[in-house]
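Good day; I would like, with your permission, to put a structural problem before you. What I wish to show you is a protein chain and, alongside it, a tokenised description of its three-dimensional fold. Thank you for your consideration; the sequence and its tokens are set out here:
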Amino acid sequence: MMIDAELSGLKIGKVSVLRRSPARRDKWECMCECGRPMLVSVYRLVEGNGRRMVTGCNRCAYTTHGMLGTKVYKAWNGALERCRNQNNDSFKHYGGRGIRVCEEWAKSFEAFYRDMGDPPAGMSLERKDVNKGYSKDNCKWATAQEQGRNKRYNALVSYQGYTATIVEWSERAGVNAITMYARKKKGWPDHEVIEGRVPRNFKMVTLLGRTQNLAAWCRELDCDHAQICREAQRDGSYTEPLKRRIRGERKV
């Protein structure tokens, strides 16, 4: 009977038959070439029974390269998704602005793998020029830090006589790079991109030999905080409008 056939040592496609399963007479313990263990029905190991013969594990059976699900395959597939799939969250930053995967890579994972090989530990796919597409000449495996330096939002910031990228300032000052980018995009001055913006209520002002926040000065001098801020914006200083209140004056 087919179920009693001795199949140990048999090689079918990418599958090597090891031994009969101790739990099921009709199942055999096998090993795919990729190293994945399998439990396969005898009816898929013997020809002439009308069943589809096993050719590999679920990962390998449907690809010629057997690398479905690997990190390098995900990198290739991710690039295609970002450039082709309009429903992908990142499409607007890639395919939506004309970034493409080169024709050879788009047609063949094997071509991509031949050119790029396996990614080293801790690295992922990176384009050298963010305004160009995915190709052998424009791609490399890069660390997260290297990728951060190559982002389109990595504008230059000048502070205390030194000019550097947002990522570099993030490392120096310990401020989140995305936060700094958001400040830069809003048009904040470079020193506030790094230092942050102190709420006007807590702006420290020194007057009459004393230092306290602006809100406290406004309460003490019984003046309108919003009006002081408007005058300070014109004067370029918070002390001048406060001095005028002390002298009993008010700038129109």
